[in-house]
UniProtKB/TrEMBL annotation:
This is Transmembrane protein 161B. Its main location: membrane. It is found in: Membrane. GO terms for cellular component: membrane. The chain crosses the membrane at residues 106-125, 137-157, 169-188, 230-248, 269-289, 367-392, 453-480. The keyword Magnesium does not apply. Keywords: Glycoprotein, Membrane, Transmembrane, Transmembrane helix. The gene is TMEM161B. Belongs to the TMEM161 family. GO terms for biological process: regulation of cardiac muscle cell action potential; regulation of heart rate.
Length: 487
């Protein structure tokens, strides 16, 4: 059915769904506006005046004269005022004023659409088993990753624009820390971290050299191993810098959510959700997981419990389940963030002095205004983990079955295909078919260079790295909020 076929129809249908249906039924809006999240409204100036005992409006402000000009002094109230904020459920009208709400809605809804396209494509490949079609769901996954990185980059640039705060220094420090960490991880032997990156790069270099030899060019590797690891470390440091504040924010929300949770099951799920990146990191530590699970020491002999392909499949499923758990716990974390408004007011009551009504209103309203920023910091790493795992499954030639069958790729004899086209087709139509055949041969040559071994090693490392960055930053944030902040 051509180069794409049924997958193009699925893509067009999903694009139509995103245009017609998602504006009315959006998962992003439902996560915020289903009635479970409640935000704190800032008090009006009249309410603050009444609480402060200033009933006379005309004498509520003191005027001062400077050079003939009357300067009004803003209304101030005692910090220990008996103030209780009113709550209100988040509605769709409220979200219109939120900062970064369009970016949040687009990322979540597009990720859902890309996941649906991926599932439909996987079902199609499982039953039809096409051999000459391009998997268009990979393009959707790559677009999701690009959107997530773009959003995180946009959020990080705001921290660099703050002159007085230390956010810029934190991002730069963690960026250098993750660069050193990436270089250290990349030199670790495969006996401890079994990404398959060394094997994949060696296969890529050999395939590229063979391709260049066939083209009559000098048979040199397109890039050295040191250069490859250096640029990969730079890319990893950027990802680590982008994930710094999402991890720090997650730690604070985790502590606040634990204080709100009253049921043991909810507290257990919150702990599992916080430790989920650590579980993902340990999945690639060979002595702890793979060697122990596949060959457990049972008496004098070790009996393998599963094959290596089965372990790879279970690893993919475990990452997806942990991502689903993180999505399910999103509302608990967002509500814990919204409660910061009342928490700030309670902290203010313990202080002496006075505060202006405008500053108090800004302090309360700022929490709800940045709700979508916090939601993006929570969702974007989750989206990156999920779709990197989906790319790892497809490009790494893994299987979803617990007992996967070995997948073999049969080589195509391009010379026979070209000769048959030249000999059997008329001249005009034959030239067009020959052009299509040449494009197909070129794509197959690229497949021979960029093999599943390369993608398996590279995507395994990137999946592990995202989880490692999230756990490192959230662990540092947990230590900071637990022991370094002054209550």
């Amino acid at each position: 059915m051509g180069v794409i076929g049924i997958q193009l129809v699925v893509t067009m249908v999903m694009a139509s769904v995103m245009q017609k249906i998602i504006p009315h039924y959006s998962l992003a809006r439902w996560l915020l506006c289903n009635g479970s999240l409640r935000w704190y409204q800032h008090p009006t100036e009249e309410e603050l005046r009444i609480l402060a005992g200033k009933q006379q409006k005309g004498k509520s402000k003191k005027d001062r004269k400077y050079n003939g000009h009357i300067e009004s002094k803003p209304l101030t109230i005692p910090k220990d005022i008996d103030l209780h904020l009113e709550t209100k459920s988040v509605t769709e009208v409220d979200t219109l004023a939120l900062h970064y709400f369009p970016e949040y809605q687009w990322l979540v809804d597009f990720s859902v659409a890309a996941t649906v396209v991926y599932i439909v494509t996987e079902v199609y490949y499982n039953f039809m088993k096409p051999t000459q079609e391009m998997n268009i769901s990979l393009v959707w996954c790559l677009l999701v990753l690009s959107f997530a990185i773009k959003v995180l980059f946009s959020l990080t640039t705001h921290y660099f624009k703050v002159e007085d705060g230390g956010e810029r220094s934190v991002c730069v420090t963690f960026g250098f820390f993750f660069f050193v960490k990436a270089m250290a991880v990349l030199i670790v032997t495969e006996n401890y971290l079994e990404f398959g990156l060394e094997t994949g790069f060696t296969n890529f270099s050999d395939s590229a050299m063979q391709f260049l030899e066939k083209q009559g060019l000098e048979s040199q590797s397109p890039v050295s191993k040191l250069t490859f690891k250096f640029f990969l470390a730079i890319f990893c440091s950027l990802i680590g810098a982008f994930l710094t504040f999402p991890g720090l924010r997650l730690a604070q929300m985790h502590l606040d959510a634990l204080n709100l949770a009253t049921e043991k099951i909810t507290q257990t799920l919150l702990h599992i959700n916080f430790l989920a990146p650590l579980f993902m990191v340990l999945l690639w530590v060979k002595p702890i997981t793979k060697d122990y699970i596949m060959n457990p020491p049972l008496g004098k002999e070790s009996i393998p419990l599963m094959t290596e392909a089965t372990f790879d499949t279970l690893r993919l499923w475990l990452i997806i389940l942990l991502c689903a758990l993180r999505l399910a716990m999103m509302r608990s974390h967002l509500q814990a963030y919204l409660n910061l408004a009342q928490k700030c007011v309670d902290q203010m009551k313990k202080e002496a002095g006075r505060i202006s009504t405008v500053e108090l209103q800004k302090m309360v309203a700022r929490v709800f205004y940045y709700l979508c920023v916090i939601a993006l910091q929570y969702v974007a790493p989750l989206v990156m983990l999920l779709h990197t795992t989906l790319l790892l499954k497809t490009l790494g030639n893994h299987s979803w079955g617990v007992y996967p069958e070995s997948i073999t790729t049969l080589p195509v004899d391009n010379s026979l295909l070209s000769n048959s086209v030249y000999s059997e087709l008329p001249s005009a139509e034959g030239k067009m078919k020959v052009t299509v055949t040449q494009i197909t041969v070129a794509l197959s040559s690229l497949k021979n260079i960029f093999t599943p071994l390369l993608f398996r090693g590279l995507l395994s490392f990137l999946t592990w790295w995202i989880a490692a960055c999230l756990f490192s930053t959230s662990l540092f944030g947990l230590f900071y909020h637990q022991y370094l902040t002054v209550a």
